[in-house]
Amino acid sequence: MRVTQFWLSFGFGLVTASVLSIAAVGLSLQFGITNYINFAYGDFMALGAYLTYAFNAEIFHVNIWFALIVGSLLMGLIAVALNRFLLSPFARRFDKTFYVLIVTFGLSLIMLNLTYSIWGPNVRSYNMKIEVDMHIGPFLLNKYEIIIMIISVVTMLLIHLMLKTTRLGKSMRAMSDNTTLAMTSGIDTKRITTITWFLSGTMAGLAGSVLGITEGNLTPAAGELFLFVIFAAVIVGGVGSIYGAMAGGVLIGLATEVSAAFINAAYKLDVAFVILILTLLFRPSGLFARSGRA
Amino acid sequence: MAQFWYYVFTLVFFLFDYFILAMGLNIQYGETGVMNFAYIGFVAIGSYVTGAVSLPNSVGTGQQYIFGWNIPFPFNLIMGGIAAMLLAVVVAFIALRRLRTDYLAMVLFALSFVLYDIINNYPRLFNGADGLYNVAEPMTGVFHMSTNSFVIFFSLVTAAISLILWAVMSRITRSPLGRTFRAIRDDADVASALGKGVFRYQLTSMLIGSFFAGIGGGLIIQFGGSFNPSAWLPGETFVVFAVIIVGGVGNNVGLLVGALLVETLLIHLPAFLPDIPGRPGLIEYFSAMVIGIVLMAMLWFRPQGMLPERVRKFPAPAGELLNRDGHSVVAPTPVEAVATTNSAAQVADAHEGNDA
Amino acid sequence: MMTYKDLSTTPAGSEGPILRCEGLTKAFGGVNAVNGATFDVPRNKITALIGPNGAGKTTVVNILSGAMKSDSGTVHLGSTDVTNMDRAKIARLGLMRTFQLSRELGGLSVLENLLVAPKVQAGESIFNIFFRPRLVKREERQNIERATEILRTYGLYDLRDNWARELSGGQKKLLEISRGVMASPSVFLLDEPMAGVNPALIERIGGYILDMKAQGVTVLMIEHNLNVVERICDNVIVLAEGKTLATGKLSELRQNKEVVTAYLGEVINASTGH
Q1: pLDDT at residue A181 greater than cutoff 80
Q2: What is the complex's ipTM, to 2 decimals?
Q3: Which of B9, B190, C63, C179 is most enclosed, with most CB atoms within 10 A?
């Protein structure tokens, strides 16, 4: 009985881990390049999820997966615009990170309330067929959850290949190590920053949409509530480390779901928090941190 | 008419309460450079503890909470302040000592969520999602007040408390301790190269600020009689930051101006506007967006705030020999003829205090 | 004339070199910035730390002042082992330093930059602020008096109520040195005090450093300008590739072939135009 339950919850954990990894990698990519945390990231997720909703259930009534792709890419473009016209001018003008952090905080407030003004506080859900759960090995999952896991794995692989094999990825890694050095060695840092914001926004939109699919509903505040878990994953993995973010996402995702099966599910977040605190106490730079960070 | 004064004094209450909250965050961020993104959590702890210690034993009240000691005002308030300080000790030892600033901001923000989650999920602490209610209005028994007169009375009490706290805060910021805080804010490396134990001072600053947060939170539950999780979503911290940035980081009078502009005019005044038919909540959303926009515009066009921090001047030592244009007789000429703007006028007003 | 009151306080033990380091090493990502540096700094002398760029001079100063932890080796201040001790503690033992690029406390006034320097102040305690205000006031008055004297000597007095961030480069340099003096150090590490300042100011800073020595302060300064070294330093330590290459008087080192090839040669050639 207990064993079955363990595997069942492990399956749910994989789904959560899939969502979380996408979100954490998107946040981490941007942090590595621009060196400040985007506190509006949760609202990027929410807005992306609602854009998907708009294509899927409001205006074009297209298939959920197609809507998800369009919604995420659109969120990526919005992120580029926000960086170009808001965040990057602040980051360039002020030395202290504080200013741009506060701007992302303000952006979060604006985006959240914009989402509320457009779609209202009521719970919405995507227009998709209800699928039955299937037994796959010891797991019990539906079609959507399996597709989400595949999306996540593919995204992680693409990010990995991009970082390791393309010139873009190499430039990004160089910039994340040392921006000034990268600039002097002829890397077009402005272009890299723009691309990074596009990727980060797209992944936020993707993560927000798949979160909406797994949860079965959408609310404007869902992204912000999820932001804490993303932070936990990123910190546990080591801030600024992409692979750390992936690993942190998997660890926190599994830990929260598996523990939910054995203790009250309401304590899910607290499990993430305990892991976070233990990490801070014993390995404050994160489990997979690169040297010289944190 | 009574309704009108009720509104006005509600605004007065929030003005002075946010003045207290802003002073607390200002000493942490504005004076010492600690970006406490969990600030609203400290406010909440102060509020809950103030309420829970003043309520009677929870049996039979229909609520669940710890304490329940019937402690009267203002002692309950002080206990709320101390509770927030205890939280600060824990936070400082886990996070402050180890992490660089932007990382710290993220951890503190996460902490704010967790605190929120814990209090929401464990009703045994402070009645969970319902929050505490039926907290008695202090001193109404003594003065036989109606709700309307209580609002007036208590907003004035809050104003008085904020003025006392202002005096306390000014004394701290003007002291050598305040100066060391500002040295750490400007460059923690230099401060420690001068022999200042940075963590010790950051902790001191966190404790002072948390006490203010706790008092400000306690006053909220005493004013309204209730407090629940909807009042302190983690993003609320941002509103307090908005107050100090709009008003002027490092300037105590500026904080009052900031509280007036942000808290009173942008948050509480719109709350009295009637709803737009068919779109409940729209005004609230718009006013929140306006705060975000005002703050960004402020940071861009006037980052020092409405009332910028002022340079602290000190009286010249007694027996100072000054020649006619105010230059000290024995001083050699300045290195580069840059800032010899300091003429007699400035030397003369060097005797005035500053940092009201 | 200014007096360097209580400036002569020395860390425990008043015999032998005041600062000695042995076998210091420090690597950054596999590159050995400091690789076994060993030297003594004689008491109450002005010692120059010279060497080609990348020789590890600043890293050594960082290690001595506790700003960086060394990978191995020991540092003694007087008879106290200060190896990898907390930097604030080292500062309280009487070791002050300046930074290569001046780091003024920009949000404090010029006067406050000095007032913050005394290592232990009664007014830094909450208890004293509220319950012993007279003590705080008296101490503050004494500090202001002393800071005023120092600012006068350094020609910064008229700028005392300006934000430190508004000073010019040369003024910031002077402010940083005078702030260190205000802290009454027994050992003062100066990281390129004359870099990027005009010749007239170099003269003045040289005078201030000689003045410190006269008042019993030990100075260790990183310096590239050999003219200055020749005129004010009693002693020279040559660092190359993280190791101590030689120590002695500059005139002796000029005869040392190794030193000349590693460092002096290029400087002399450059300065004589060969």
Answers
A1: no
A2: 0.89
A3: C179
The answer to whether residue B106 sits within a structural domain is yes
Query: Do C124 and B193 lie within an 8 Å CB cutoff?
Result: no
Shared-domain flag, residues B202 and B329: no
Torsion, Cα of B327, B331, B336, B338 (10° steps): -20
DSSP letter for C222, please: E
pLDDT per residue as tens digits for the range B221-273: 999 999 988 888 888 898 899 999 999 988 889 999 999 998 888 888 887 77
Give, to the nearest 10 degrees, the angle between helix A2-34 and helix A41-53.
110
**d(Cα A4, Cα C145) in Å, to the nearest integer?**
78
Q: What are chain A's partners, defined as 3 or more CB pairs within 8 angstroms? A: B
Domain end call among B177, B207, B233: B233
Place of tokens 């190896």: C83
C100 touching chain B per CB within 8 A:
no
Interface of C with B in 108-127 (CB under 8 A): 108-109, 111-112, 115-117, 119-126
The tokens of A132 are what? 């039955």
Hey, what domains does chain C have and what are their CATH numbers?
39-100+108-272 (3.40.50.300)
pLDDT(A186) > 90:
no
Same domain, B352 and B206: no
Q: Which neighbouring-strand residues pair with C46?
A: C219
Q: Specify the amino acid at residue B52.
A: A
Q: Where are the beta strands (DSSP E) in chain A?
A: 134-136, 139-141
Contact B176 C96 (CB under 8 A): no
Q: Is the model's pLDDT at C150 over the cut of 70?
A: yes
Does residue B66 sit within a domain?
yes
Is C88 in CB contact (< 8 Å) with chain B? yes
Which of B203, B233, B263 terminates a domain? The answer is B233
Which CA distances in Å does B267 have to A287, B2, B21, B261, C273? Answer: 42, 22, 15, 9, 71
In a domain, B286, yes or no: no
Q: Report the CATH number that the domain containing residue A233 is assigned in CATH.
A: 1.10.3470
Q: Is the pLDDT of residue B331 over 50?
A: no
Q: Return the pLDDT at B318.
A: 63
Domain assignment of residue B216, given as a range? 2-233
Q: Do B190 and C111 touch (CB under 8 A)?
A: no
How many domains is chain A partitioned into structurally?
Answer: 1
Judged by a CB distance cut-off of 8 A, whether residue B296 touches chain A is yes
Mean pLDDT of A28-57: 93
Of chain A, the percentage scoring pLDDT greater than 90 comes to 52
Domain contains B308: no
Cis peptide bond prior to C11, omega within 30° of 0 = no
According to the model, what pLDDT value does residue C10 have? 47
| Residues in chain C closer than 8 A to B331 (CB atoms) | 151-152, 155, 157-158
Both B321 and B229 in one domain: the answer is no
Name the residue range of residue A254's domain: 2-282
Chain B residues inside the 8 Å CB shell of C123: 175-177
More confident residue, B200 or B59: B200
Instruction: Domain count for chain B, please give it.
Output: 2
What is this structure's pTM? 0.88
- Structure-block tokens of residue A275: 């892991």
Does residue B201 sit in the same domain as residue B332?
A: no
Q: How far apart are CA B134 and CA B157, in angstroms?
A: 20
- As a whole number of angstroms, the distance between CA B315 and CA C186 comes to 30
